[in-house]
């Protein structure tokens, strides 16, 4: 495993390998990392509950979607050494998006630019790869995005032996955090690489931490999930967006009010945003289905209007408009966005969220 790049036979001799958990760096997207020291989206006590009561959530709870590592450094080379598990091999999604890492580099959070992704072909659950090499040794901000559909069991970074690594000066949590609950689209299916998942795009654009609780095919508004999410500290917003899983099967209409009430009981003044589902081509091709979808959309909009009679911190966003007129071109399967779709979705959602922030 010494030869990192098969297109470059140079053996890496001047690299020091670091466990980021033991370094002065900043992680975002892992609410329980400090105490649990595992790259999970939940605590072990929650996983134990899921295993017995919500087995599908249990399988997804260790996926690292939304996880990010931020640090400042002057290294000219950056490598990762990784062991992943739980990869689902989704046919319409790249292996890099599912089980890989990508990196953004800049002088500050105002000018981060995408640099590269890991090289994992042929794929192995234990791999090494560079993220950048032979760059200048200027001081730089680095953001590494974690896999969207895999568990990260082991993770090390490799930097030049003579270089430094330290925590960024800017704290993205200072104004509060966003908790995003949703479906496979929220989790990042089917982005080509982790940084293109729209929650990660929003995180960069809004310069804040977004805790990604997207569950592929398994967001049904369970009360237990609402209880766990309501306990997260330093939250400024909850986004609830699970119609794509709980819509036509009726679960959304049975659970949404209770889901909101559980959060509101613990966080009486936090902003709550309800987003209806993005538009699918099937809605137009099947008029009966389209009619049912409009009923579900109106249910969410009207429920928020009822709350707004007394609650001035809850809002509704019409998700069917977020992808615009060319929505069909922005997907890989008429459902899950491609990278262009995620870019458009993030751009329009950012406008909506900024508008909501301006009303407060």
Features:
360 residues, alpha/beta, Jelly Rolls, Rossmann fold, 2 domains, six-stranded antiparallel sheet, 12 helices, 15 strands, 23% strand, disordered N terminus
Quick one: CATH class of the largest domain? Answer: Alpha Beta
Instruction: From the alpha carbons, calculate the radius of gyration and give it in angstroms.
Output: 20 Å
**Uncertain stretches:** 1-11
| Architecture (CATH level 2) name of the largest domain | 3-Layer(aba) Sandwich
CATH fold-level name of the largest domain = Rossmann fold
SSE pattern: EEHHHEEHEEEEEEEHHEHEHHEHHEH
Q: How much of the sequence is in beta strands? A: 15-25%
- Binned, the helix content reads 25-40%
Structural class by SSE content: alpha/beta
Instruction: Please name the fourth-level CATH homologous superfamily of the largest domain.
Output: SGNH hydrolase
Alpha plus pi helix count? 12
How many E strands? Answer: 15
For the record, give the distance between the C-alpha atoms at the N and C termini, rounded to a whole number. Answer: 53 Å
Provide a descriptive summary of the structure in words.
Strands 2, 3, 5, 6, 8 and 10 form a six-stranded antiparallel β-sheet that branches. A five-stranded parallel β-sheet has the order 12-11-13-14-15. Strands 1-9-4-7 form a four-stranded antiparallel β-sheet, with no helix packed on it. It folds into two domains: about 15-165, Jelly Rolls; about 175-360, SGNH hydrolase (Rossmann fold, 3-Layer(aba) Sandwich). The protein is built from twelve helices and 15 strands. Strand 5 and strand 6 (about 115) form a beta hairpin. The chain is α/β, with parallel strands linked by helices. About 30% of the residues lie in helices and about 25% in strands.
């Amino acid at each position: 495993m010494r030869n990192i790049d098969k297109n470059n036979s140079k053996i890496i001799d001047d690299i020091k390998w670091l466990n980021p958990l033991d370094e002065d760096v900043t992680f975002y997207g892992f609410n329980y990392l400090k105490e649990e020291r595992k790259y999970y989206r939940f605590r072990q006590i929650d996983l134990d509950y899921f295993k017995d009561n919500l087995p599908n959530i249990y399988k997804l709870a260790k996926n690292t979607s939304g996880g990010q590592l931020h640090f400042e450094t002057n290294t000219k080379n950056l490598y990762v050494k990784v062991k992943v598990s739980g990869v689902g091999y989704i046919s319409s999604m790249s292996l890099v998006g599912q089980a890989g890492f990508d990196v953004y580099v800049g002088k500050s959070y105002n000018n981060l630019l995408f640099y590269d992704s890991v090289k994992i072909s042929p794929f192995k659950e234990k791999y090494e790869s560079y993220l950048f090499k032979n760059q200048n040794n200027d001081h730089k901000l680095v953001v590494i995005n974690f896999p969207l559909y895999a568990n990260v069991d082991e993770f090390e970074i490799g930097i030049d032996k003579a270089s430094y690594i330290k925590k960024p000066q800017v704290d993205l949590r200072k104004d509060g955090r966003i908790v995003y609950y949703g479906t496979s689209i929220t989790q990042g299916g089917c982005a080509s690489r982790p940084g293109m998942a729209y929650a990660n795009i929003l995180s960069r654009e809004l310069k804040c931490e977004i805790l990604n609780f997207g569950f592929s095919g398994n967001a049904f508004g369970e009360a237990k999930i609402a209880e766990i999410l309501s306990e997260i500290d330093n939250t400024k917003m909850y986004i609830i967006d699970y119609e794509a899983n709980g819509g036509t099967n009726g679960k959304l209409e049975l659970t949404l009010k209770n889901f909101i009430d559980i959060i509101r009981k613990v966080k009486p003044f936090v902003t709550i945003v309800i987003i209806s589902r993005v538009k699918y081509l099937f809605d137009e091709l099947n008029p009966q289905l389209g009619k049912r979808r409009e009923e579900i959309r109106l249910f969410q909009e009207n429920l928020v209007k009822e709350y707004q009679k007394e609650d001035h911190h809850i809002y509704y966003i019409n998700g069917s408009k977020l992808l615009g007129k060319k929505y069909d071109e922005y997907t890989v399967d008429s459902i899950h966005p491609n990278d262009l779709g995620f870019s458009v979705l993030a751009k329009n959602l950012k406008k909506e969220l900024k508008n909501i922030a301006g009303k407060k």
